Amino acid sequence: MILPIVAYGTPVLKKKAKEIAQDYTNLQELIANMFETMYNAHGVGLAAPQIGLPIRLFIVDATPFAEDEGLTKEEQEQLKNFKKVFINPVIEEESGDDWDFNEGCLSIPDVREDVFRKPNIKISYVDENFQPQQMELNGLAARVVQHEYDHIEGILFTDKLSSFKKRLIKGKLAAIEKGKINVDYRMSFPKASKRR
User: Fold this and answer.
1) Is 148 a catalytic residue?
2) How far is CA 105 from CA 7, 20, 156, in A?
3) What are phi and psi of 26, to 5 degrees?
4) Residue 191, φ and ψ in degrees, nearest 5
5) Spans of all domains in the chain
6) How confident is the model over 115-151, as pLDDT tens digits?
7) Which residue in 74, 148, 153, 177 is the catalytic one?
8) How far apart are CA 154 and CA 108, in angstroms?
9) What are the φ and ψ backbone dihedral angles of 168, each rounded to 5 degrees?
10) Which 3-state string (H, E, C) describes 59-90?
11) 5-188 — its CATH code?
């Protein structure tokens, strides 16, 4: 089932999410719905707060990035089948020199900005079967995971921008909050008079 993605300005996007237990109600159905919602919106990642749930769960499928010719063979290989479910994740380590990349977000449509992040991470989590996992990622795979991880920490990519950049996009963000934007996927808006 395709779920509405909550828009910028919705309080759940600014809350630190809570861990869940293995018996979380309808977890497998929720994960399937999140993948369907993400693919419908042409995204490569989706966190539970983006569908209104303040829980520590996010999904990624960075496979589309594997086609990027600007990447090294190693990076393309890492992204080729990079479809994963992260439950109760903890980023244990971030390393390397900050690098910038143009990011966007399904909750903040039509806004893209360069964001600086560390290129290497080590993350621990449980998968959809609640099996403990640990993974080291770099480059785009690390960035996609960091972006989604920020969501469960109540952080948006716009929070990482300079005050000057924030001022430049202030009007766009206000329009998104009010639902004054056209998107080709289901969204719910905090200040819109009607749901879409």
Assistant:
1) yes
2) 10, 24, 8
3) 50, 40
4) -115, 10
5) 5-188
6) 999 999 999 999 999 999 999 999 899 999 999 999 9
7) 148
8) 14
9) -65, -30
10) EEECHHHHHCCCCCHHHHHHHHCCEEEEEEEE
11) 3.90.45.10
